[in-house]
Design brief:
GO terms for molecular function: carboxylic ester hydrolase activity. With 434 residues, the chain is an alpha/beta fold. The chain folds into two domains: 102 residues, Quinohemoprotein amine dehydrogenase alpha subunit, domain 2 (Lipocalin, Beta Barrel); 233 residues, Rossmann fold (3-Layer(aba) Sandwich). The protein is built from 13 helices and 17 strands. Helix 11 links the parallel strand 16 and strand 17. Helix 10 packs parallel to helix 11. The longest helix has 17 residues. The chain is globular and about 70 Å long. The termini are far apart.
Length: 434
């Protein structure tokens, strides 16, 4: 019998994306690339439930396009070989070592055709959106270049024209997007988006970015077996360098949420970062935290198996035989990544942190308890500790009971805990970041 593991921190993306050059054939007299340009939305008629998609085409030297699949947390993923021949349109999406192919016909403002994946065919239909829809207010993005491709970060500036401080907001584990959402959780909480907006209202700019494999950075994902924790740290360091070089900003602050706390702690080296804020960051090593989480969600036999696996991982070994219910956590392909994560002790990293530091945690956080916040605070007596009564892991006020608490994870209409941003602003002002 399979057992669901409700461990929000551990949602691993099992995809490997790549993007090839776009090509196009000459359009016919019947249809040109300029007719195709713009946003098209619709769905693929997969079994059980249609899969909503959004495709945007544009004509530069050749036809190009991007596809977004909201249910899979994929945004603006580049399309390959966009070709328009008369009214026949073909394009494909290369992901997970597969080429997902679309073949359709354009009739006025509708594209109808066939989507093919792994030899299976499904109908799809797209409707062209009005220009006012596609030209609506767009996010402003910054980029950094990495060996696996371009990474995008959403820049939000305060309305005032003065030179503001800027906060780099680092998301948590799994394929979490820049807004704090994950495909492993039904609905959206938009916690990091709300955080950025409230900071902007108080005069602080921010850059927040999708994890590799999510959102606009879906195409920059690394093969699962090659992912290491240091890659997350290197990405954060590169963003910090980018912001330090940008003359629009006065100071650089790093805000790390959940796994992003440890990433930010390591990346925010003294001298290049003016302040660090840890939100819901673990104080124990990942294996210790995971052991605690599993004890609350597994049957005795599966928990004992998980303890054996963790001990083997601590000893530098990997485990090939894993029970099906534990594969979502201990899949052999992700075990090297887990070992690279376990190698870092957050308390030790906090002890070495020399910049002004604020440690924030909610009293109703199901993933990272106030015990972890206290461990971090004890490791660095110079750090400030802010415990917010009733706040949970997605930064919303929530009840203590698990069911009621988890309901907030998919509700974007709930505001952030009211003490969170004022507490951050008080800390920044106190340390001269303004």
């Amino acid at each position: 019998m399979r057992v669901w593991l409700p461990i929000i921190m551990l949602v691993f993306l099992i995809t490997a994306g790549c993007s090839e050059g776009n090509q196009t054939s000459e359009g016919s007299d019947k249809m040109g690339g300029d007719d195709l340009e713009g946003e098209w939305s619709g769905s693929i008629q997969v079994p059980d439930q249609p899969l909503n998609i959004i495709v945007e085409f544009r004509e530069e030297e050749s036809l190009q396009g991007e596809i977004s699949i909201p249910a899979q947390n994929i945004e603006d993923y580049p399309l390959d070989q966009v070709k328009l021949n008369g009214r026949e349109l073909t394009f494909q999406m290369s992901i997970s070592g597969q080429s997902l192919r679309f073949i359709g016909a354009v009739e006025k403002d509708v594209i109808k055709g066939t989507f093919t994946q792994s030899g299976q065919n499904f109908n799809f239909e797209l409707q062209k959106q009005k220009a006012s829809s596609s030209s609506a207010s767009k996010e402003d993005f910054m980029t950094i270049e990495t060996i696996t491709g371009t990474l995008y970060g959403s820049l939000l500036l305060p309305e005032k024209d003065s030179k503001p401080p800027v906060a780099l907001i680092i998301p948590g584990s799994g394929p979490t997007d820049r807004n704090g959402n994950s495909p492993g959780i039904e609905g959206k909480n938009n916690s990091l988006k709300l955080l950025a907006e409230e900071l902007a209202d108080r005069g602080v700019a921010s850059v927040r970015y999708d994890k590799r494999g999510a959102g606009k950075n879906a195409q920059a994902v690394t093969k699962e077996g090659d992912i290491r924790f240091d890659q997350f740290v290197d990405d954060a360091k590169q963003w910090i360098d980018k912001l330090n070089e940008d003359e629009r900003f006065s100071e650089v602050v790093v805000i790390g949420h959940s796994q992003g706390s440890l990433v930010g702690m390591i990346a925010a080296e003294s001298g290049i970062t003016d302040a660090f804020v840890s939100i819901s960051g673990a104080g124990r090593t990942f294996d210790q935290l995971l052991e605690d989480q599993l004890s609350k969600s597994l049957t005795d036999d599966l928990y004992q198996e998980s303890l054996t696996i963790l001990e083997r991982l601590r000893e530098g070994e990997t485990v090939k035989e894993v029970s099906d219910p534990l594969m979502s956590v201990f899949n052999p392909s992700v075990q090297p990544f887990l070992q690279s994560w376990m190698a870092y002790d957050p308390a030790e990293q906090m002890r070495e942190t020399e910049i002004p530091t604020l440690i924030v945690n909610g009293t109703n956080d199901l993933q990272v308890t106030k015990k972890d916040a206290q461990i971090l605070a004890d490791a660095n007596p110079e750090a400030e500790l802010l415990l917010i009564e009733g706040m949970n892991h997605v930064l919303k006020k929530a009840p203590e009971d698990r069911e009621g608490n988890l309901k907030t994870y998919g509700n974007p209409d709930l505001p952030l805990a009211e003490e969170l941003v004022p507490g951050i602003m008080d800390f920044l002002t106190q340390h001269g970041v303004k």
